[in-house]
């Protein structure tokens, strides 16, 4: 079985809880895009761990975890993550395989990301982890890859870093007026040492994964961010710089066979950073969602913008990501609401839209969401383990979402831990 877990909204749908829960069925859990901009929270008992770069299936002792070619890697972050997991008692180092083709996030990428965000009049609200500038270098063929750290001598690597970073240093100094310089020889040495210290296996992960699929092994691809943040299909320019949707698995891991795509849908909507958000509730409803759902960024700690579920966007994202089953999360967060609204279509100058006719912010800022109101269930559901036991109002809400999106809901999450899950 080859599966992918994909966020269908603007990230933070609860992907990591799902991956941790499902990982026991898989031999490999693979990250294929993004970098340390991701914040993936796994809760086991009273322990909570936030993954940024390592796949969230790591707490399943049998899974080998893979960082594939499409990921951009911050070596310092990776070392910290490995150390924290080992300190918690999870053998990690020996179970991580990294692609020789993954790109490295360099210090200058992070500096550019931060300076751009602080100086630009039109901010994206990035996580400032250097993700965009690192992918820019990848596309411009000026990236430093894991294979460079392995195959080049320190002096060869220094030469390469000097060559590819010239434009960056010029930009930082002259456009952003920021006093920055570094010694390529020292930086090359540091990068090589940091990587050696990691002590993880380097492979042609695209060959490994395809061969393991042929042998009948089970592989789970872990999407970071969500379809609406995908560089091609999201609300561009308010997106991340990689293919966060299912499309990223092909380019980010070299695997084109997928047996199923599990779309994660949060029972309401959140967004961190700038950009259009048609169902946003910038009022006490949004505040209540944020407080009940603990909606603060797992990477940056920023308060997440909150609003009602947006079915037109979900119709779009589930089609684009080829989602064949839905894992509905955080239903318990809606428990205290008297009434719950769901956007069922958009209206623009008298035209009705079931699916947004464009993902362009100009369109999404102009449309008017049309809501259907549901009666709340007003009872705690975090202890419920079967669909039958759910209050009738919650059942009605779930069935409505399922029929409007047109994809079966196979699981419902009613709390952050593994066992707080209803299987349908
Ligand atoms: P990810 O980036 O998609 O993995 O999601 P995050 O980890 O950034 O954010 C999801 C948050 O919701 C985390 O704090 C999870 O522990 C929590 N969570 C996941 N599922 C549920 C749920 O069903 N109910 C509640 N109350 N919290 C959940
Ligand atoms: P997970 O995997 C939510 C958002 C940022 C910003 C935009 C671009 O935890 O769901 P970037 O640093 O990627 O250049 O920022 O994307 N963003 C996320 N929002 N969850 C994430 O990851 C995100 N990763 C990036 O807030 O709006
Ligand atoms: Mg997150």
Q: Can you tell me about this structure?
A:
- With 424 residues, the protein is of the alpha/beta class.
- It has 3 domains: 2-101 and 202-262, 3-Layer(aba) Sandwich (Adenylosuccinate Synthetase, Chain A, domain 1), CATH 3.40.440.10; 103-198, Adenylosuccinate Synthetase, subunit A, domain 2; 265-423, Adenylosuccinate Synthetase, subunit A, domain 3 (Adenylosuccinate Synthetase, Chain A, domain 3), CATH 3.90.170.
- The chain has 13 helices and 20 strands.
- The chain has helices at residues 15-22, 75-87, 107-119, 131-139, 146-151, 154-175, 184-198, 205-214, 247-253, 284-293, 311-320, 361-366, 392-405; strands at residues 2-7, 28-31, 40-44, 47-51, 64-67, 72-73, 96-99, 103-104, 201-203, 219-222, 260-266, 269-271, 305-307, 309-310, 325-329, 339-348, 351-353, 368-375, 409-413, 421-423.
- The strands form 5 sheets. Strands 9-7-5-2-10-1-11-15-19-20 form a 10-stranded mixed sheet, with helices on both faces.
- It is globular.
- The two termini are 20 Å apart.
- The model has no long low-confidence stretch (mean pLDDT 97).
- Bound molecules: guanosine-5'-diphosphate (GDP), 6-O-phosphoryl inosine monophosphate (IMO) and magnesium ion (MG).
- Residues 7, 11-17, 39-41, 43, 294, 298, 329-330, 332-333, 413-416 line the site of guanosine-5'-diphosphate (GDP).
